[in-house]
Structure formats: C-alpha cells, structure tokens
C-alpha cells in the first residue's frame, strides 16, 4: 500500500465519519457533497459501494437519505480501508504474476514491507469512526 490512500477511500471515510457524527438523522448525498465540495455523481458511486458492502443504508424519496447500518463505535477503519482499497502490493514482488525482480528468491524486503502493511492495518483496526469524530463538537458545528 502506498503511503497514501486513494481518493475513493478518503471520500468513503469522510462520508462514514459524517454519518457517525449525526446518527440521529438521515443525511443526503447533496448535503455531504456540499460540505466537502465533492461532485454529487462521484459521491453517489462511493455511497452505492458503501451500501453494497453493508456499511450504510440508503433510502430514496422524501425524508430519505443515508445512515450507518451499525453504530460508529462498531465500524473500524481497518474494515473500511480493506473494503475500499484494491491494491496492497507495496512493491512488484508482492504479485507473483507481475514479479520480474531477480532478487526475489533471496530478498527480505517483501517480508519487511508485508509486516509493515499488516501493522498499518492492525492500527486501523483499533480505531473506530466514533474515535475520529467527537459527536458533540460536530453537531455544534452543523447546527
């Protein structure tokens, strides 16, 4: 995994954090798009992906919107990042199909980077959406 996450994951985390900050109500895509200055069409695709992965629920029509399916304290960042990131191959040798490095058979780099990636994900597993956004502070700003 590069030392940054994709824009898709960044926006997915923002949506989920926002929903976690206001659990008492449904939130529209329009509201989130305006708050974060994100294209509504782009955000719609992200929301559909998150709903398909069972992280949020969407309801159409008047009074519709989206909300978390589970309380924010039950949603770990590790779960979200694993669901939204597609490539955890830090270097070429992680993927046997594309590995052309002649050092692979005697190299320890792959093992070290693999351990680092697992430590990164374990750290994210220990953090929930609720840990990231103090509800009282956010609710005061959104009022």
**How would you spell out the order of helices and strands?**
HHHEEHHHH
Q: What is the subunit arrangement here?
A: single chain
Mean pLDDT across every amino acid position: 85
Rg to the nearest angstrom?
18 Å
Helix content: 40-55%
Number of strands: 2
Q: How does the major sheet shape up?
A: 2 strands, antiparallel
Distance between the termini: 38 Å
Structural class: mainly alpha
Strand order of the largest sheet: 1-2
Shape descriptor reads elongated
- What portion of residues belong to β-strands? 5-15%
Low-confidence stretches: none
How many H/I helices?
7
Question: What attributes does this structure have?
Answer:
143 residues, mainly alpha, two-stranded antiparallel sheet, 7 helices, elongated
Describe the structure.
By secondary structure, the chain is mainly α. Helices cover about 50% and strands about 5% of the residues. The protein is built from 7 helices and 2 strands, in the order αααββαααα. The protein has helices at about 5-20, 30-35, 40-50, 75-85, 110-125, 130, 135-140; strands at about 55-60, 65-70. Strands 1-2 form a two-stranded antiparallel sheet. α1 packs antiparallel against α4, α2 (about 30-35) packs across α3 (about 40-50) and α4 (about 75-85) packs across α5 (about 110-125). It starts with 6 loop residues before the first helix and ends with a helix.
């Amino acid at each position: 995994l590069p030392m940054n996450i994709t824009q898709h994951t960044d926006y997915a985390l923002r949506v989920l954090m926002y929903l976690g900050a206001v659990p008492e109500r449904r939130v529209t895509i329009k509201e989130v798009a305006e708050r974060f200055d994100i294209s509504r069409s782009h955000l719609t695709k992200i929301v559909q992906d998150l709903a398909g992965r069972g992280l949020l629920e969407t309801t159409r029509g008047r009074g519709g919107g989206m909300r978390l399916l589970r309380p924010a304290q039950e949603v770990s960042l590790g779960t979200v990042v694993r669901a939204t990131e597609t490539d955890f191959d830090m270097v070429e040798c992680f993927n046997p199909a594309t590995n052309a490095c002649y050092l692979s058979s005697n190299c320890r780099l792959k093992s070290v980077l693999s351990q680092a990636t697992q430590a990164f994900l374990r750290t994210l597993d220990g953090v929930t959406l609720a840990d990231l956004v103090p509800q009282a502070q956010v609710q005061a700003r959104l009022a």
